[in-house]
Every structure is written in C-alpha cells, then in structure tokens.
C-alpha cells in the first residue's frame, strides 16, 4: 500500500514543483494525502469485497456477486470522475469589480479603448487561456444533467434501486427471495457510493497535478521557443531625429514565427509581453533620464515587437490596463498590426502618455496612415490633428514625437 504514494510522488516530481499548488508538491502534503486516502479507501473497499464475497459464497454465487460489485463500483467511479474533473480558473467577483471600476475611470477620462470584440478575452480572462479540452465541458454538462434528473426523479429513486437490485438478486438465485434482494441492494448501493467517492477523490488528487504538469510542459516549451527567437533576432538601435520607429523585416519575420509557435495557446506570448511591460516600468522608474535609459527602453520595445503578434489576442486587455508598460505593449501591437478601431485610443496616447510612449504611438499612427485608404487615412489624420492641438494647448512638447506628428499631418 505504501508503494502507491511513493510511485505517484515520483511521477509528480517529473514536472516543475512550481507548477502545482503547495498542497500538491511531492514530499509534502501530497504524499501524506495519498497515504491517508489509500489507507482509508483500500481498507474500506477490501472489507466490503470480503463481506460481499463471503455472502456470495454462502449463496453459491460468488462469481455473479463479484461481477455486480465491480459493475456498481465502476458506475460510481465514473460518476465521481465526472464530478471531480478540475475546472479552469475563473476571475473572482473582486477582480471583476476592480476591472469594471478601472474601465469606468478610463471611460470618464476619455481614453477607453474600443469595446472588446465578442469571443476575445479581457484582463480578467488571462487565466482562462489554456489548451482546448472538451472533457471539462462534457463533464460540466453531464454533472448538471445528472443532478437535474436526480432531483426531478428523486421520488422514483427507491423504485429504480429496487428494480436494479432485483436484477442483481436474480444472478444469485433463479427465484430470489427477500434476503437475496436485500443483499443485492446493499451491494449495488454500497459499492456505487464507494466508487463515487473513490473516483472523485482520486480524480482530484491525480488529474489536477497531471493537468498542471501537462500545461507546464507545453508552456515551458513555448517559452523556450520564444526566448530562442528573441536571441536570434537582431535588435536595431533606437530611431532618433523624428524618424518613426518601425519594425524591421527581421523583427516582422520573428514576430510571425512567435505567432506560429503560440497559435494553439497564446499564454506564453502574453506572459512574455507582460514581463517586458514590467521590465519597461522598472527601467523607467529606476534609471535616471537620459540616453542610456532611452536605449534600454528601446531594446525592450524591440523585444515587444517580436512578441506582438503572439500576444495580439490580448490587445484589449493591454490597452485597458492602468499600467503604463501594458499600454506601451498595446501601442507596439498596433504598430505591428494596426486595428482601425483603436485609432482614437492610439491618438489619445500622444497626449496622455510620457514622451517615449507618445513617440511610439506617433510611429504607429504614421505607419497606419501609409497603409490605409484615403477615407480612413483622413479620419486618422483628423484624430492626430486634434491630439496635436491638445499638446499645443498644454504646452507638452517633445521634438521626436512632434516631428512625426508633423509628417502625419503633411
């Protein structure tokens, strides 16, 4: 019995311990939980089989009794498995209220991004990004159906159990007596309950860790691939003198490669983009203003450019974030692939963001004006002209940004 926890502990240790909750890490609570569960469940199950087997041997029907024991145990375990399948994480009410409050504040300030298209994840949906598994949905549907039908037909439950028990009793004797039916009822109900709890507990203990390891392995391989692409992509020096900062052909090629790598699950790219956004904020906060800080921040923007297409599904989340680094990431995404719906939001970045972010927003707008048709380009130029008027009225001047704005308005 003690070999089972040790073997499972070895299996769990193959994944990254950081990928599990603390209670599921090998050598700690997991091993103790497995020992307790195995001792209690296997002892109860073994005693039940001995009692049922003895009763079947007394009735000269040991084989049929054991078959019904296994059938009831399997039915209960299958139901427990459906109820025990772990679900993906979802945001709590507090997180949702926080995001709604932030969105209202941004809307009042006039800088809210456009509404999120149907089917895209917002800030609260980052944890929901995970490999597609229909098993969770099927489990959810079936458990609701089982509970619903059980409640509707609750008054019919005794008759259903009696009918099943009568069939089981017929396997013990050609003409079953009340004793046979009573014994069959105990077997059907008892082993079904044991199977349910066994299936539920073991599913929670094993599958939760297995799913975490599987996700961690896939995420680790994708993160490694992204890092390799970043290492082999040349990071051009920052543009200056009013020249727009645009992605180079090598960066666009690398961005397409990252998009291909994370096509089935963009979490790794989104996490990398969030990491770069935080690195930008730390660089801006800890380094003194000057050329060296600008160079470091430009390097971060270059790496953001490579990850931009892979994290594009979370554009709305980054654009609506209260963090300056996340908004810079959204600007870079729009520089790589412009979305006309974000034109007003991007024009607002010229006024509301620091000069460095405003410079990259101006670069994104300039690139967009080159690619849009006349009508859409005129609308975008009107937004830039309005932003330029605000900058002049507030006397917010920055040579590089303002030169790009002038080139847009030419």
Q: State the distance separating the first and last CA atoms.
A: 80 Å
* Structural domain count: 2
User: What is the CA-atom radius of gyration, in angstroms?
Assistant: 31 Å
Helical content band: over 70%
Order of helices and strands: HHHHHHHHHHHHHHHH
Mean pLDDT: 78
- C-alpha geometry: elongated
The total of helices stands at: 16
Low-confidence stretches: 1-26, 89-106, 116-130
What structural class should be given to the helix and strand makeup? mainly alpha
Strand content: under 5%
Q: What would you note in describing this structure?
A:
With 410 residues, this protein is an all-alpha fold. It folds into two domains: 3-88 and 130-218, no CATH class; 233-409, no CATH class. Helices cover 72% and strands 0% of the residues. The protein has 16 helices and no strands. The chain has helices at 3-13, 29-58, 62-84, 93-108, 134-152, 157-170, 178-231, 249-261, 267-286, 291-307, 315-319, 324-336, 343-352, 355-371, 374-394, 399-409. Helix 1 (3-13) packs across helix 2 and helix 12 runs parallel beside helix 14.
Task: Provide a compact summary of the structure.
This protein has helices at residues 3-13, 29-58, 62-84, 93-108, 134-152, 157-170, 178-231, 249-261, 267-286, 291-307, 315-319, 324-336, 343-352, 355-371, 374-394, 399-409. With 410 residues, the chain is mainly α. It has 2 domains: 3-88 and 130-218, no CATH class; 233-409, no CATH class.
Produce the secondary structure layout.
Layout: H1 3-13, H2 29-58, H3 62-84, H4 93-108, H5 134-152, H6 157-170, H7 178-231, H8 249-261, H9 267-286, H10 291-307, H11 315-319, H12 324-336, H13 343-352, H14 355-371, H15 374-394, H16 399-409
Helix pairs in contact: 1-2, 2-3, 2-7, 3-7, 6-7, 7-8, 7-9, 8-10, 9-10, 9-12, 12-14, 13-14, 13-15, 14-15, 14-16, 15-16
